[in-house]
Specification:
Elements (H helix, E strand, L loop, with lengths): L1 H10 L13 H29 L5 H27 L1 H20 L3 H37 L3 H30 L1 E2 L6 E2 L1 H20 L17 H9 L5 H33 L3 H34 L11 H18 L1 H7 L4
Antiparallel strand pairs: 1-2
């Protein structure tokens, strides 16, 4: 009996073999990008229509204001929430707010739009922090598994994600262009409910894809990170002590004002009088396509800049990712959420002091 046990012990591997079904980090990044493509193709187009479709009492515009005010306030505590939930669950929970917002637009009243906008603000805060955390974790895992430079791998993963995200404006708005028709009086629109049902279907596909993501929880940090309210508050305030974070606040403010103009004023006061409500989709599709091209060019420049920095000063205190021009391009392409949620990891990877 003992001899047989010794033979079995000798035959057993010293290190357990990796699970064959474990998905690669690169595949997870592809799935994450595809999920956001479906969710935000629908949401981006719906957002563009808010000020032109829900005009009674400026319901659409007020809803967007409530949404982004809620988004701003909940962003303060989004990081601890994502830490508790884990990035994958944060992504799934966060996407539920977008589904509720689309459902509210099918029956748009103050009693449906206002609560949905408040809840979406919370969901948006955790989905973007979760996205930045998950994508950064996947990129660093891929770099370690394949002995690749972490900075370049992070840049490649981020570039793919935001290149696909930029295309959502074009795809979603083409759906609007195809399904919406101006009414006979020029002030109404037909096909709205059908369009939002299609948007709802797109979001369900996106949520299913998020459920297929691998778990990437860093549980070793969950127990001690926020052991008290004071510790959590210190964690939240800490980024404001970084001079570089303070310097990009004006860029964030500018981005917010620019988006408010495009999503509310430009579509309602410039596009609709000329092309009608159905023309909003076509105009914004062109806007989105141009944005996608610029994002791809910007990340190509970012990748070259990263390669240059690794070649010349891998261990220096200079932060190449903090170049004003690159940061401006990054923020303008909606990358500020990823920057915010992954800033600590980004600085470590890029060799910042």
């Amino acid at each position: 009996m003992d001899a047989l046990r010794d033979e079995e012990d000798a035959a057993a591997p010293l290190v357990a073999a990796p699970v064959a079904s474990r998905r690669s980090p690169a595949a997870d990044a592809h799935i994450l990008s595809a999920a956001f493509l479906f969710v935000f193709s629908a949401y981006g187009a719906a957002q563009n229509l808010e000020s032109t479709v829900n005009t009674k009492g400026d319901l659409g515009t007020v809803s967007l204001g409530i949404l982004y005010t809620s988004f701003t306030l909940f962003s303060v505590v989004a990081s601890p929430v994502v830490t508790r939930l884990g990035p994958k669950r944060a992504l799934v929970v966060g996407s539920s707010g977008y589904v509720l917002f689309i459902l509210a637009n099918i029956v748009p009243t103050w009693y449906t739009m206002v609560p949905a906008s408040l809840y979406l603000g919370f969901c948006a805060s955790i989905i973007w922090v979760g996205q930045g955390t998950y994508l950064t974790s996947a990129a660093l895992s891929h770099a370690r598994d394949n002995n690749l430079p972490e900075g370049r791998t992070l840049g490649n993963f981020t570039g793919e994600f935001w290149g696909i995200m930029a295309s959502t404006q074009a795809i979603g708005n083409l759906l609007s262009l195809a399904l919406l028709r101006n009414g006979k009086d020029g002030g109404s629109v037909t096909g709205k409910n059908l369009l939002f049902v299609v948007f709802l279907g797109c979001m369900i596909v996106g949520i299913v894809l998020m459920c297929l993501l691998s778990e990437r929880e860093e549980k070793e940090h969950n127990d001690s990170l926020h052991s008290s309210f004071g510790a959590m508050l210190k964690y939240i305030v800490a980024p404001l002590k970084d001079r570089r974070m303070l310097l990009i606040i004006p860029l964030m403010v500018y981005t917010g004002l620019q988006h408010a103009f495009v999503w509310a004023v430009f579509t309602k006061s410039i596009v609709t009088p000329v092309l009608g409500i159905s023309g909003v989709g076509g105009a914004m599709a062109i806007y989105g396509a141009a944005g996608a091209v610029v994002v791809c060019i910007g990340y190509w420049i970012f990748d070259l800049w990263t390669l240059f920095s690794y070649t010349n000063s891998v261990n220096g205190s200079y932060c190449p990712g903090c170049s004003p021009i690159l940061v401006a391009s990054f923020l303008q392409s909606n990358g500020w959420s990823t920057w915010r949620s992954g800033s600590a990891t980004h600085r470590r990877v890029m060799g910042c002091g």
